[in-house]
Amino acid sequence: FDQMDGEIWYNGEFVPWADAKLHVLSHGLHYASAVFEGERAYGGKIFKLTEHTERLHNSAEILGFKIPYSVAELDKACEELLERQGFSDAYVRPIAWRGSEMMGVSAQNNRINTAIAIWQWPSYFKPEERLKGIRLDMAEYRRPDPRTAPSKSKAAGLYMICTLSKHRAETRGYADALMLDWRGRVAEATGANVFFVKDGAIHTPDPDCFLDGITRRTVIDLARARGYEIIERAIMPEELEGFEECFLTGTAAEVTPVSEIGPYSFVPGEISANLVNDYMQAVQPLRAAAE
Ligand code: PMP
Q: Which GO CC annotations does the UniProt entry carry (predicted)?
């Protein structure tokens, strides 16, 4: 991945992809003082760009550092890089981290580095494929108590347990894993939020110790626009048996129906199908406008 063609925006400059390097003594690598974003461009336009950039700034603030570029500057850098890369449908990965000037837990004065990489990511829309649903394992790790970790920051360190859970799920033949929270309530997948359907209403966990995803909020608005009832509440794993449909939401996942979680089965139905389509429509004008 580090040898691709193209450019990476690195501390204000466009550098050749393979030259965007950092020192092995970077604080961000040793102590996970890094925050990032995941964004998607459709038809040459980055969906909800400013919301993502604001979340990046906020994630850094939660970790006690300030990104030395304004939201407007970063938005512009993302847009310019997308254009220079020449992609229409792509994934956008901004990241900011503490540098290598000091080595130790304390690194108050280390430089805050910022980079943006963009790679091609076609958005294939095959509803019939999607509606088969994916299979989720139950994760062994739980989302931490907000008193244990800065759970509202999209911080690199919080992804350690996501990678462990996702790898374990893949080894066991699943696509992803459902994580509970520190209290044993249903939380989210390793990189996406989760929703359930029962008796025509949509239930989703309160996002009190994990990311309230930008896609999650978009899908809630789309569901309400259709007149569906949205119930945000504590959901216990024992309830999984009683839900009819289940789907994940996220920038990468978009709306992805789920067919199984451990021993429980779901049948992606009308509500999942409608929201898969509505989300595609919501990002579609961006593509249409660019064509
Ligand atoms: N939870 C986690 C752990 C994630 O990594 C993501 C992806 N950023 C989400 C939820 C969904 O967030 P969004 O819809 O903003 O992409």
A: cytosol
